[in-house]
Design a protein that fits this description.
The protein is of the alpha+beta class. The chain has helices spanning about 5-15, 25-35, 50-60, 130-135, 145-160, 170; strands spanning about 20-25, 45-50, 65-70, 75-80, 85-90, 100, 110, 115-120, 125-130. The protein is about 30% helix and about 25% strand. Strands 1, 2, 3, 4, 5, 6 and 7 form a seven-stranded mixed sheet that branches. A two-stranded antiparallel sheet has the order 8-9.
Length: about 180
């Protein structure tokens, strides 16, 4: 499991090493909301593709090793104690928009508009995370699981966002496989 204390430790290490990052996925949702809403098996973070080597070197000091290197699309790290980090490398343009190459629906690029990089908190600590709108966008384009519905439900309720059509089956009480 990925505890809040571990996430903050990783955030502190990356900040100290000068590696800009933003929380994504479940911890990104919880940071945007400002409270932990469920347990997390891993940590998803967004970083610039050109900082991934520095990120690997920095986190190796905490016993993380590469378990999947599919750059430029994806990178995964794991520590011997089971802590897992899923890295979403992005390429920024001149005005701050980014894209994750090959990570979008149907193999296209996943968009990260400049306005989608925000701040949230874990406990009393402010952390960089994606905005609720971008987190909601990234919860679309695939068949949702119960944990995705959990995230979407909290984002929509807290920030007054419209529930995407793909999640209406959850609102009607239907199960997914």
């Amino acid at each position: 499991m990925m505890s809040a204390a571990t996430v903050l430790s990783i955030a502190t290490r990356l900040t100290g090493a000068g590696v800009p990052f933003w929380l994504d996925g479940g911890w990104g949702v919880d940071a945007a909301i400002g409270e932990q809403t469920r347990p997390h098996a891993d940590l998803d973070i967004v970083v610039s593709l050109d900082t991934t080597d520095g990120l690997i070197a920095t986190l190796s000091e905490d016993a993380f090793a590469v378990t999947a290197d599919e750059r430029p699309t994806r990178l995964a790290l794991e520590a011997p104690d089971g802590r897992k980090i899923d890295i979403h490398p992005v390429v920024f343009d001149d005005i701050g928009n980014a894209r994750q190459i090959g990570a979008g629906p149907n193999g296209g690029d996943a968009p990260y508009p400049a306005a989608g990089f925000g701040r949230g908190s874990i406990g009393d600590t402010e952390v960089p995370c994606l905005t609720p709108e971008l987190l909601l966008l990234h919860h679309q384009g695939y068949r949702p699981l119960a944990k995705d519905w959990h995230n979407v439900r909290f984002l929509c309720a807290r920030f007054g966002l419209k529930v995407p059509a793909a999640y209406e089956m959850f609102m009607e009480g239907h199960e997914t496989g």
